[in-house]
Amino acid sequence: MSLVLPRSDGHADHVFDVVRSGQHDDPNDIVARSWSRCLNEYRLHPDRPRELPVLPAKTLEERLSRMADVIDCARYEMTSLYQQLSDGETAVVLTDTEGVILHMVTSADFASQVEPMGLRVGAVWSETTAGTNGMGTCLASGAPVSVRREDHFFTAYTGLTCSAVPVYDPAGELCAVLDVSSRSSMMQQHLLVLLGMTARMIENRLIDRRFRSAHPVHFHSRPEFVYTLHEGRLAVSEDGHILAANRSALFQLGMTSVAEIRSRRVEDLFQSSLNDMVQRSVSSSFHPIVTYRANAAHRFFAVARRPAEDARAGGAMTMMPAPTPGVRPAPAARAALPRPGSGGVSTFADPRLAQQLGTARRVIGRQTPILLCGETGSGKEVFARAVHEASPHSGGAFVAINCASLPESLIEAELFGYRAGAFTGAQRTGRRGKILQADGGTLFLDEIGDMPLDLQARLLRVLEERQVTPLGTEEVHDVNFQLISASHRNLLALVDEGLFREDLYYRLAGVELDLPPLRERSDKRELIRNLLQAEGGTECTLSPEAERLLLNHPWPGNVRQLRHVLRSAVALADAQQIGPEHLPSLRGNRGVPPAETVAQPAVPVVPTEEAAEELPRLNPIQANERQVLLQLLEHHRWNVSNVAKALDVSRNTLYRKLHKLHIRISHPG
Ligand SMILES: Nc1ncnc2c1ncn2[C@@H]1O[C@H](COP(=O)(O)OP(=O)(O)OP(=O)(O)O)[C@@H](O)[C@H]1O
């Protein structure tokens, strides 16, 4: 079928009519404005397309080499997008700022169909040469555009629909355009969103690539968004200067340009130095740590890493960040904490937990999949590692995947991998999926309740057949791994809501273990001692009053929160015995989440002492509701009016709910 629809007279007349009628004066009508430019500025005629210029081989080669890093960063994302669209009559295209096509991902069949009309690498698709079109008009307007069939200026292109978005470099300058050209004109809005996400992924990769010797900092006001596409990303020099920032970072920090943020240092943005953030991130095994906006009460969750280039240098150098003034140097014991659960700090002395661990160790050897349920921070990953280490597959890798924080478009490639050269434009090296990496070891699927439904079907097939086929290949690999999954959500409730496949649930839950929250554990004293030792070394001690406060706290954030509180207490105590004065977040409020996670409320409302009492058992749905409410309260700094507003319920309704879920709060004094 030809893509050229020679309906010249109708289309050309329409273009002339629109421009004559002055419709192009509407600043929101991107297409009409472009048509006006084509007629009045570039002197084009809809029925007389010019042959598209194609760069000579040598010039193209130079251009490709100049843009090599952008192309490299885009290659993988473009392939993922192409796979996601799963439409053989589509091309994903990257151009430079002059509209020269640098890279294209499409099927061989579609490539041969569109080549005669100039859709190929080296061709120039600027508006001046190709009239109104996705790539050229995106460049001319500097904004995302959808150019549907008859929106094209030249009649010859009205068989295609193109959507395109700008891509910015780490300096905030437009550096490329990403476009999808297709026969289908369906779902353009959806496509623009997907393209926008892909552009952001490319931009983030470009920051990593161009600033390998800088410290990457990931942050967001909500911890679950750190490491996702929505996170703010900074590249920071060794001396704390901001070198680059992504669009989300600018937005979250209220800045308008990269130039503005480049004049700042980390301390100007957050109430912490770079060294302090790196040190705390290392100690928290790169779970997001709490930090505040400088001179404001805004709270962010952040992870600061060491430069990628340093990391590659590997064992030759030990790269501990310089100690921060006021914070004691990391004791040797901390070296035992490179990742959750490692190095003998894991404590499972609680009888219920010890029994669960025994069960898990027994069944894992018989290839029974284990599903761990429990509140966030209760130690599901630590538990899973302990099971792996005691299992027959302990010689293999423990491969953890957080299903909630992977961008949806990446999950497939992450899990299943893909082969080099499987697609036009696929990465030269290909990619080994996590399932293959876990072969002979343990695959830990964290936050499994957040996996999209269509992917659940593929995962189920892998679990049933124990075979994996990397994307874009026909190859089938046999795999043999132990499976542990975890979720803080109630999977059966998700099954009832149609959000989780029932058959997958039964595949994952060979044995289901409900890990107790910290407040219900009887080994709190031992856990506190072990964590304190890990954070502060053997010389660190607690006063009886401090220990009482720690033992009585309800710990909505569980062991993770306990670790954070102990870490700041160690720093505050500065080699002295830890007393109540070093636990400011527990002192006085006897139950509010710690200062690290909660700023002072505008109208202080705090949980009462009774909150520290043992909680009666709640069913899983109530426990979930309770957790959500605690998080909301924390988010709104325990301001009940604001939480009621956020939930669109009256304060009375909210109070009733809080009472039912045993969340007790009262005004102080
Ligand atoms: N038994 C334990 N002994 C020592 N430290 C623990 C223990 N359990 C949890 N931790 C610490 O608490 C933090 C949270 O643990 P982990 O990541 O395993 O929790 P999780 O339940 O998987 O959290 P999430 O639901 O957010 O994924 C980690 O820093 C970990 O080191």
From TrEMBL:
<dbReference type="InterPro" id="IPR025944">
    <property type="entry name" value="Sigma_54_int_dom_CS"/>
</dbReference>
<dbReference type="Pfam" id="PF01590">
    <property type="entry name" value="GAF"/>
</dbReference>
<dbReference type="Pfam" id="PF00158">
    <property type="entry name" value="Sigma54_activat"/>
</dbReference>
<dbReference type="GO" id="GO:0043565">
    <property type="term" value="F:sequence-specific DNA binding"/>
</dbReference>
<keyword id="KW-0804">Transcription</keyword>
<dbReference type="InterPro" id="IPR003018">
    <property type="entry name" value="GAF"/>
</dbReference>
<dbReference type="InterPro" id="IPR058031">
    <property type="entry name" value="AAA_lid_NorR"/>
</dbReference>
<dbReference type="Pfam" id="PF25601">
    <property type="entry name" value="AAA_lid_14"/>
</dbReference>
<feature type="region of interest" description="Disordered">
    <location>
        <begin position="326"/>
        <end position="349"/>
    </location>
</feature>
<keyword id="KW-0547">Nucleotide-binding</keyword>
<feature type="compositionally biased region" description="Low complexity">
    <location>
        <begin position="329"/>
        <end position="340"/>
    </location>
</feature>
<feature type="domain" description="Sigma-54 factor interaction">
    <location>
        <begin position="350"/>
        <end position="571"/>
    </location>
</feature>
<dbReference type="InterPro" id="IPR002197">
    <property type="entry name" value="HTH_Fis"/>
</dbReference>
<keyword id="KW-0238">DNA-binding</keyword>
<dbReference type="GO" id="GO:0005524">
    <property type="term" value="F:ATP binding"/>
</dbReference>
<dbReference type="Pfam" id="PF02954">
    <property type="entry name" value="HTH_8"/>
</dbReference>
<dbReference type="InterPro" id="IPR002078">
    <property type="entry name" value="Sigma_54_int"/>
</dbReference>
<keyword id="KW-0067">ATP-binding</keyword>
<dbReference type="GO" id="GO:0006355">
    <property type="term" value="P:regulation of DNA-templated transcription"/>
</dbReference>
<keyword id="KW-0805">Transcription regulation</keyword>
<dbReference type="InterPro" id="IPR029016">
    <property type="entry name" value="GAF-like_dom_sf"/>
</dbReference>
<dbReference type="InterPro" id="IPR025662">
    <property type="entry name" value="Sigma_54_int_dom_ATP-bd_1"/>
</dbReference>
<protein>
    <submittedName>
        <fullName>Sigma-54-dependent Fis family transcriptional regulator</fullName>
    </submittedName>
</protein>
<dbReference type="InterPro" id="IPR027417">
    <property type="entry name" value="P-loop_NTPase"/>
</dbReference>
<dbReference type="InterPro" id="IPR009057">
    <property type="entry name" value="Homeodomain-like_sf"/>
</dbReference>
<dbReference type="InterPro" id="IPR003593">
    <property type="entry name" value="AAA+_ATPase"/>
</dbReference>
<dbReference type="InterPro" id="IPR025943">
    <property type="entry name" value="Sigma_54_int_dom_ATP-bd_2"/>
</dbReference>
